[in-house]
């Protein structure tokens, strides 16, 4: 048989800090392995400490007290009935990193009436399982607030149609709790950059964290608020330094004024109070206030720097791709963000419903700058496979959402309303134009 | 230009895609002094292409215009010269996801065919991965090698002209994923298994009863392809498959080709220590 490669299997062993996926039947949950931290899954509490050092894909039992115990493998030749089953406390720890989807096998087994039967241990990939998770996003045990029902085959299309690959600069706008973002980052492998556009106050990335990316991946990730897009496009985005009051100030003057404020307040307090203890408290309060103001200043400066770096990436208007997958109406977002994309680059928009994408399509045809526009959805069918009983289980259609994809091209500079051509320079159309303008 | 990295300006030697209209595109190789005929007239490479930006409009000699696009695997799939039936983007997307391909992946593929899937794999695994692709037809193997070179991806791929069922992929123990699309995929299972990265895996628990019965003599199980750790897919149904550990042959039912991938488990009931993940993609 095959010779084993002589490398350690360390990377297939669970360590503290790893993100893992707990699996029981077809219920999945992603958690981080932390020392003595209680984890809840399927209405049970337990600690993951005993899992450390074990291989991914291992099966555990939960003992009284919440510790995990290795489940011994059973041997064959036993009774053929389901005595082996009934293991209610079975859990399998699965890696995020490199394994397989098994939900289907489990479903198949279930269909064969094997509920509660032994589930052969699986190695489940983090990203793949994540995709499963979105499928089960409706179920309670997955805590995702803003979830889109994004089917894994739709996600597959997004990643491929968008030509997501290492070394590109991709704009992502999603409200799938970071799943799409994480998938994009996985396909980029830490090369290139991803700019996450976000609505409201800040980006949501919970799902992305669970991918367990090495830290250098995070350096490729930037964010930029949607509300500032128009300003950036118009060239009016203010990126200069500001103090806590939002007024434009230089750093040095702020410091000295801060110091002088402190100094001036001291003699005041000394004048007013006689009690030395109260005076100490007052000084302490002042110090705390100063400290907080300083921390706030540092934070704002960090935020400003991040905004500036994201803006710098966007300003060139040479991004290599755009992915939109959100519950918001895609049209305004798409029309706005396309301006940052270089010509001859793909873009993909996901929407749960068709109509908003039809609007986008129409607008793009009017405005130009995009070709090969395609509105698609994919159908997914799972099969039950049994002797003489092989047949489709169910057909998922429509439920997977819709995709609008296309390729950018150089915008037509000299386009006026009357002379607007369609993207296809058909001879007939030309003649009509000639007639109408004659 | 390369199929795995974007560039901005068209250069001599690039492969570009001319877009003439909906569903009307063609690939051309940019050469100084050359001309290409389109339905709107001729394009002169030296003046109209070299030095221009990808995505720009090019006016042809008769006055009409076309767009010139940067090649991508998706555009290549719909424009490549067919030497065999190819896989299209929809399936390729699912395959890529299910094989969990990413930069750095080492992938084995057979047969190479016309290179449609190959280009997509290369795009996804670049710049640190590698594709080992096996094609038993000498001219197709040669043509594939040539194309990879022209598309500036040959450093990421090794094409082997051999029979994967007899001689395997040419490497062992390093693949993250194996893909089979050949008439008798079960004959390549052993090689697929040896190509895949090996890890110490704990013994699995025996598969339930039903599979026992199915795997016994006369039992029937629908299997297209077996592998251990990654997905392998075949578009063809077959009748037999082989447990790679004990070479016990069990019978398989012919499957009808339809849509999409499913996975399920099969355990060889004679040696017990094998574990298979069976994958089918039916198209």
Automatic annotation (TrEMBL), chain A:
User: Gene Ontology cellular component?
Assistant: nucleus; tRNA (m1A) methyltransferase complex
Alphabetized UniProt keyword annotations: Nucleus, tRNA processing
Q: Which InterPro entries match?
A: TRM6 (IPR017423)
- Where does this chain mainly localize? nucleus
Q: Which Pfam families does this entry report, sorted A to Z? A: Gcd10p
Keyword Nucleus in annotation: yes
Basic and acidic residues: compositionally biased ranges: 242-252, 278-301
The places in or outside the cell where this protein is found are: Nucleus
Q: Where is this region: Disordered?
A: 242-301
Biological-process GO terms, alphabetical: tRNA methylation
Q: Which family does it belong to?
A: Belongs to the TRM6/GCD10 family.
Which protein are we looking at? Answer: tRNA (adenine(58)-N(1))-methyltransferase non-catalytic subunit TRM6
TrEMBL record, chain B:
Asked whether the keyword Cytoplasm is assigned, the reply is no
Q: What class of enzyme is it?
A: transferase
Mention any one GO cellular component term assigned to this protein in its UniProt record: nucleus
User: Residues in domain tRNA (adenine(58)-N(1))-methyltransferase catalytic subunit TRM61 C-terminal?
Assistant: 64-199
Q: Which GO terms describe its molecular function?
A: tRNA (adenine(58)-N1)-methyltransferase activity
Biological process (GO) annotations?
A: tRNA methylation
Q: What is this protein called?
A: tRNA (adenine(58)-N(1))-methyltransferase
Organism phylogeny: Eukaryota, Metazoa, Chordata, Craniata, Vertebrata
